[in-house]
Design brief:
Subcellular location: Cell envelope
Number of domains: 2
CATH topology of the largest domain: Rossmann fold
Domain Periplasmic binding protein: 31-289
Keywords: Signal
Distance between the termini: 63 Å
Bound molecules: beta-D-galactofuranose
Pfam families: Peripla_BP_4
Structural class: alpha/beta
Protein name: ABC transporter substrate-binding protein
Length: 320
């Protein structure tokens, strides 16, 4: 029997076999996921959501924690390519520097899904979909709360210090831009100092200590790009003998449990929600991509704003 005929017969046999195996018994979908790190309560909830959704769907999840370092994410993506996973997904720690490795994934014909944070790439076809929040709008919402608060005391001016997220990350760049857009031109709202706290409690406390040392009682408001930095800063404010939430208003983003607890203690004034529960949408999108079905380029999530007045009522409903 010639090789060709044997090969054709072999292929036909395997096709018949595959058709006979029920879908659930076929090879499970394998997703390689590179996570930013474990820097905040938000990230912990995001990781739990992804792992839980993968487990429930019977997905084989290869999970890599990059400890907030881009080189670790590039390494993880290359490893997923070498392992020939079905889909690569990741939350890019920073916006730029992804073209080369994403071109390698494209050359290997492995689709890439972005979750949580976006990338800036020359060729948008390097990823199939981005599932996450509108960070510019989150920054606007934080500023709008402060604008409305200032209107209650029209004669008062507010000096603001800003704790930015990780340098170069989409949430840090966009939350800064959205906040600045809304306060721009308002003579009563002025940003005195702005510096990164890298989204962590420890760094948020450290930078707030420096702000207090240089600006002292001049500070009326803290705008933190995430609740973890705000919670660290609250400790610094108290250690300086000031009352967070009163002497210094605290405006933050994420909506994690720690922020609700701080609001219930009167130490934080408002948190703008940033939903980390992206697991189910990620798995569903990966399954559609694997099945060759079309998926939206941009999948957003619904989010709210939680001022301290609603904290007691809302806290029991929080899922993260
Ligand atoms: C936002 C996410 C940010 C959170 C932080 O989607 O990337 O990173 O706001 C987290 O808490 O560290």
């Amino acid at each position: 029997m010639t090789l060709t005929r044997r090969t054709l017969l072999g292929a036909a046999a395997s096709l018949l076999l595959a058709a006979a195996i029920p879908a659930h018994a076929q090879k499970p979908l394998t997703i390689g996921f590179s996570q930013v790190g474990a820097e905040s309560e938000w990230r912990t909830a995001n990781t739990a959501s992804i792992k839980d959704a993968a487990r429930k769907a019977g997905v084989n999840l290869k999970f890599a924690d990059a400890q907030q370092r881009q080189e670790n994410q590039v390494k993880a993506i290359r490893s997923f390519i070498a392992q020939r996973v079905d889909v690569i997904a990741f939350s890019p720690v920073v916006e730029s520097g992804w073209d080369t490795v994403l071109r390698e994934a494209k050359a290997a014909r492995i689709p890439v899904i972005l979750t949580d944070r976006a990338v800036k790439v020359s060729d948008p076809s390097l990823y199939v979909s981005f599932i996450g929040s509108d960070f510019v709008e989150e920054g606007r919402r934080a500023a709008r709360w402060l604008v409305e608060h200032q209107k209650k005391n029209p004669a008062r001016s507010y000096n603001i210090v800003e704790l930015q997220g990780t340098v170069g990350s989409a949430p840090a760049l966009d939350r800064k831009a959205g906040f600045a857009e809304v306060i721009n031109g308002n003579p009563k709202l002025k940003i005195l100092r702005s510096q990164t706290g890298d989204f962590t409690r420890a760094k948020g406390k450290e930078v707030m200590e420096a702000f207090l040392k240089s600006e002292g009682k001049n500070i009326n408001v803290l705008y933190a790009h995430n609740d973890d930095m705000a919670i660290g800063a609250i400790q610094a404010i108290e250690e300086a003998g000031l009352k967070p939430g009163k002497d210094i208003l605290v405006v933050s983003i994420d909506g994690v449990k720690g922020a609700f607890e701080a609001m219930l203690q009167g130490k934080l004034n408002v948190t703008v929600e940033c939903n980390p529960l992206l697991g189910p949408q990620l798995i569903q999108t990966a399954q559609l991509v694997k099945a060759g079905k079309p998926v939206p380029k941009r999948i957003t999530v619904n989010e709210g704003v939680f001022p301290a007045e609603v904290a007691a009522k809302e806290f029991p409903n929080r899922q993260y």
